[in-house]
Amino acid sequence: MSNCVLIPDYKADPARYEEGRMEYRQCGNSGIKLPALSLGFWWNFGGIDPLESSREKVLYAFDQGITCFDLANNYGPPFGSAEETFGRIYRDNLRPYRHEMIITTKAGYHMWDGPYGFGSSRKMLMTSIDESLRRMGLDYVDIFYSHRYDENTPLDETMQALVDIVRQGKALYVGLSNYPVDKLLYAARYLQDSSVPCLIYQGKYNMMFRNVEESMLHTLSNLGIGFTAFSPIAQGILTDKYLNGVPADSRLGKGHYLKQSDIAPEVLAKISALNDMAHERGQSLAQMAVAWVLDNPVTTSVIIGTRTVEQLRDNLGALNHTHFSDDERRRIDEILR
What we know:
This protein is an alpha/beta fold. 36% of the residues lie in helices and 14% in strands.
């Protein structure tokens, strides 16, 4: 990243916490509340993206009451660069507001070369949290996630590393992501017995992908663990952007994690029907998709990752209408059947 960036004077909007701007939801049985919408750094905030574009989105989000910023060690691209981007913005603009933010990061997927650069071993997690704190210029993160269950590492080893990271003051809370239910139950018991309870679980959830409804959401509710959902618009599929072709600057147009079969004609027909329904509700399809996830009472926060401020503004509009009637839910189910 360039070191010759002009740093604008920034003072947070004094109206950012006014009633009606952002909803804050209790996270499980804890004393923490999370914003209904969190800003995700998985894509569009890496070293290949203009720093000033990232800065504009982050500061706009904070001014709208988004206080949770969701990162991971390997977000970018390239790996680590999203944390570096956040670190620059934090240093230049957000440092005075550290006590108002929930900053999260994760480790578990591939990060560096060699046998210790992936997985959920103590070696990987301990090294990763130190490197993440260095990249972001932080003394601690608010939530450190085990990013995935690693079948090659004993769960006790992974959980003890999380416990020690909290006891060392490098994280205030721990969370789990992409764990099967049985492993979540074991991990939650271990953490609870160690007096470092699991604060939150992060999983993929949208109208087209509902695996967490099978047993995960019920389990989280029973355990008093919060739930934050990622991919609410299915990486852009649950928007109107592909109804008239493939935009060159879209994720599919760039070949980023989507392929042509993801928008096959039968899929586009369903998206078109959902788009019509969203217009009837006075929403864009993206807004309806985000609102649908928020309407589930188990959902604590929904992670949105946007390419532009305009997309971020549109996503925030979902908060204006998050209720779905039984008839509307049945209609969505029929469309997606």
